[in-house]
Amino acid sequence: MAFADVREYTHLTDEEVEAIGRELDEIRAQVEADRGQADRDYVTRVITLQRRLAAAGRITLFASMFPPAWLLGTVMLGSAKILENMEIGHNTMHGQWDWMNDPEIHSSNWEWDTTQPAEQWKHSHNYIHHQFTNVLGHDNDIGYGILRMSRDQKWTPYNLGQPVYNALLALFFEWGVALHDLDIEAIRKGKKDPKLLKKQLKQIGDKVGKQAFKDYLMYPALSGPGFFHTLSANFTANIMRNVWSYMIIFCGHFPDGAVHFSEEELEDETRAEWYLRQMLGSANFEGGKLLHLMSGQLGYQIEHHLFPDLPSNRYADIAVKVKDICRRYDIPYTTGPLHKQYGQTLRTIMKLSLPNRRTTDNPAPLAPRKRRRLQDSERPTRRTELGKWSAAASA
Amino acid sequence: MTSAPIERTSALRRIRHLGKALTTPLSPDDYLALVNPLWSQRELRGRVEKVVPETENAATLVIRPGWGWRFDHSPGQYIGIGVELDGRFHWRSYSLSSTPLVEGKTVSITVKAMPEGFLSDHLVNGLEPGTIVRLASPQGDFVIPDPPPDKMLFLVGGSGITPVMSILRTLDRRGTLADATLIYSARFEEDMMFLHELRELAGRHEGFTFHERFTDVDGILTPEQLDDVCHDWMDRETWACGPAPMLDAFTDHFQRLGREDHLHVERFTLATAGTEGAGGTVTFGDGGPTVEVDGATTLLEAGEKAGVNMLFGCRMGICHTCDVPLAAGRVRDLRSGDEHGEPNEYVQTCISVAVGDCTLAL
Ligand code: FES
């Protein structure tokens, strides 16, 4: 099966696919040329807000013995962590703000407030997940190696426990993410370079140590008699952040309509086809400005996957144009309210805990294929198709 | 960017360490800077206190540096200054015109607006007092020894006066401006920076001779004319700063006469903007391998060809695994056609080609 056989695209001619690619390149070029003060003001405002919120939360929690202070402090701290992870950390590490040439807000040195070291996240997320979006066997984000998220993944009795694993993953999401780049499956099969493993484990250990020391020892200690109150508040704030980011992230690729791909579809994929795969593999959700802010603009998951390194505050505008392209070329654009998107995701998780023969699915499953996880060295190296880009830029 | 330590005692260091444990993964400075932007040493910062016009198109910026700044630069050195303009930071280097350890804890640089230099123009004409700027510590070896040599000569053209001004002011303050000659060329009188101060300095110090030269009338100073203006120049230790052709001419002249050891030169390397045609010589790291590339070979491919262990991920410009700071030169982004060439700007090597010679900081 080649990319052109993906059912949602079969009506497109090669020329149309290329034209779509050019239109998307054009959108990118426009935003790049237009980035400036307003964008910088946006991100610095969010950063300032987040730091104030975090500081206020921590200070309030010095009085965590009093229930109202506990509640207020926890909500403030949890919200600060959500903002930091989603809108600030995730997007900065994508390089969305690198154009500002500001060493303090730059993908090369940003570290975020969660247990996974930034360096590992940039590999597992920026590179693996964003390049191989929804390609089974390549993209470890499909179920995070814990859940069966596609009918194409083999069922085992282990999967019967999915409802439980799912709940645990939601609660302790940051730990799932922390271990993500280790590639547990590779370790299990003895394919992991032990030197790399050791280095990664040390990085994680350092990061986890610092995070845990801060949340579970230093701040509780500073609250004196309120030690356990502050500890429970910090724990709750972390859980809040975990559940929220889990939900937002799962809504990005698993609602009905988001398609999974097979390895074969990667072969000879052009830049335009890569764009199409991003559009078809991602799903948006709708909501107000606050919801988008708290989710790091990932309600515009489709736009984010097309342009992962354009400033997040631009996605709302880009979405209008992308939707228009989808309408004109008759390509699906998956979106819906957050509760509906998550509801569908949850249904899929539950359903796939059972073997395929026990459930029906919509859309119809792709033909099952042999699959295994690849090492970096085995992954296809993409060519940059310089000719096309240069031509598009000068046109 | 390395920052200077501000912990002068081990107690302070311990407090900071503890603070860092509370604010990880950020630093305490990130929170303190919310209260006062100068309370950060993550990066050296400064606040522009005053913008003093010097001539029609030059101004002195008086800057109050924040934490971590050490007022112990040698006169003649330059600093890096990073200024935000339309959302982006632009970095340039300028000589300090102030003396070290001045009262009031400020430093100053004097900037001349260049015809096509949008940043220098902004610094001279657009910068509001109160603006926060980034700073890089003083660098450069265009300095005089302490105590200074008995006989000195300063050859200056245009804005080359700024490091020399710092030197002269320091010598004046220390009372060691004994026997010095300054030959300073500018196009015309109004274009000459610090004219008043220099004349006054010459009036106060017997040993200090100040030759004003206006090239609109007198023409450019040639090495051959040196004997006329300063007959004993061969006995003097010389510092020269100014436009490249002038420096080239004098360097040649000194070499021919075997006196190159007595000539100290400071060049202002101006980024040559808008060089047409892509390709050039790419150097990977200081003293690293060098390859010739055309305008279609990406820096990543060039590096791989040269046997450099280049990091990459997607090879299509989305993951930023391949980002590397640009030490010198200009590159073009193949997707947009835009050129980048700020010093220390990160470039994506997988989608960038060289525009002329460039060096990557690896
Ligand atoms: S290798 Fe991914 S951006 Fe260059």
TrEMBL record, chain A:
Protein name: Acyl-CoA desaturase
Example of a GO MF term: oxidoreductase activity, acting on paired donors, with oxidation of a pair of donors resulting in the reduction of molecular oxygen to two molecules of water
Basic and acidic residues bias locations: 374-386
Single biological process term from Gene Ontology: lipid biosynthetic process
Any single Gene Ontology cellular-component annotation: membrane
InterPro entries: FA_desaturase_dom (IPR005804), Fatty_acid_desaturase (IPR012171)
Residues covered by region (Disordered): 353-395
TrEMBL record, chain B:
Protein's organism: Aeromicrobium yanjiei
Residues passing through the membrane, by range: none
Cofactor names: FAD
Protein name: 2Fe-2S iron-sulfur cluster binding domain-containing protein
InterPro entries: 2Fe-2S_ferredoxin-like_sf, 2Fe-2S_ferredoxin-type, Beta-grasp_dom_sf, Cbr1-like_FAD-bd_dom, FAD-bd_FR_type, Flavoprot_Pyr_Nucl_cyt_Rdtase, FNR_nucleotide-bd, MRET
PANTHER family, sorted: NADH OXIDOREDUCTASE HCR
Iron-sulfur listed as a keyword: yes
Endpoints of the signal sequence: none
